[in-house]
Input
Amino acid sequence: MRPGITIQHSRDVSGDSAQVRSDIAGLIGVIPKAVWPPGAKRGDFLELPLMATSQLMKSQLRPLFDVVTVRAVRSFFENGGEICHLFGLCVESEHDFMDADPFGTLFFSLLDRLRDREDLGLLLMPILAYLPVSYAQGRPVVGYEGILELLLRHCAEMNNRFLIIDAPRDLHDDDLRNWVLGFRDRHRKLGCYGAIYYPWLMFGDEAFPASATIAGSFARSDREHAPFGVRWPPANQVLMGVTHPAIELKWSESGDYIESGVNPILTVPAKGVVVWGARTLSLEPQWRDINTRRIVSFICEQVRRDSEWAVFENQTRELWQIIRRVVTGRLDMLWENGLLAGDRAGAEYLVECSKELNPVEVVDAGIVNVKVRLRPVTTAEYIVVDLQLGSS
Output
């Protein structure tokens, strides 16, 4: 018997690893310099896990967080959110958000912490939408676009994270659509990891960004369709704690917004305020729908967790065979639950793990490469996923 192989032959994917959560939100707010804790410096942060708005309101840390973020926590739980990790980032002024290199300065430590929180499925930072927009040669310039890019890159780095973006407060109509189209073009490889929503929402005379409300509706839909709620598109959802949109869009306008990559929020008679679009920011057809992106992200993270044990084993043909069986077994289970296309198990997905994918230099680096070709039920196109088990 070869060391490290015999136990793995009897692995049962149904009990090996916890199921990935897709409904837990990471909400990033700020702590203004005037209320920094003693000894704090720019880029430091606080974290507060929450399961209800009341936990924040009773916390001695609540006065440290900006009012926009406190309001967002309430919106998330009003709309069915169950768990939220609230992060407060120490900033000196709004100019911190215009930094050309936010990772190298402001967000370095926070991103490390976000990586540790593997179960965060949703990410949002509503306070960004309050920042002013400038114009250059008649075109809108969103100064914090670098932070949006940073957060999208983080979502791409993680296997199960999706960024919910608010429309900037001062952008509307053609200016908004043109900026979004430009943003999509500038960030082609990242667009599928995020979605943008417009307009802002109202509760009486109070206006606020939509992202936390949308995140709560994502979480509610995921749990209502448990255990695999990512299959359902997060659209046609009634939004709670809202009296009306800040701008009443006509049905005839919604198509133009959707085509430009903006998910419109509309008032539906006898129903209420609903989110109508379910599009990512991607320009690639296979990644157009939010639920396609989230299904694939869910599968990637679940397979990674199922297979973490493999990086500690001796890489042999037997190990690769076991990995193929473990991953295929997980895909079979997901197909049975309606996430993958095909009239029978294995008809529309294929798992590869071989010497060709794992040459000597890869093995020596402690990495196992796995290639999965699959077709989610939400798309007519096949998607190829390259997984690196053991990569940092």
In short: The two ends are 31 Å apart (CA to CA). Residues 134 and 213 are 27 Å apart (CA to CA).
